[in-house]
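Section 5: illustrative case.
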């Protein structure tokens, strides 16, 4: 999987899979994906929008990328 392909897919209006979203978030938080590529993906998302499923998967991937606090 390549970030370029994920950006291109979104730029053309395609829906991203859970695996593609996780690849982008995990790679970015690990420092493997540069800022300019994440900015390009963000712009593609801004222009094309996201499905409710994509939004849910992005939210989960971002929440799981860092530490969680148990507030129970």
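Designed sequence:
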């Amino acid at each position: 999987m390549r970030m370029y392909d994920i950006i291109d897919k979104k730029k053309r209006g395609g829906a991203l899979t859970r695996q593609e979203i996780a690849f982008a978030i995990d790679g970015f938080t690990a420092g493997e994906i540069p800022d300019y590529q994440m900015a390009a993906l963000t712009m593609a998302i801004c222009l094309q929008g996201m499905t409710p499923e994509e939004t849910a998967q992005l939210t989960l991937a971002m929440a799981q990328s860092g530490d969680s606090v148990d507030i129970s």
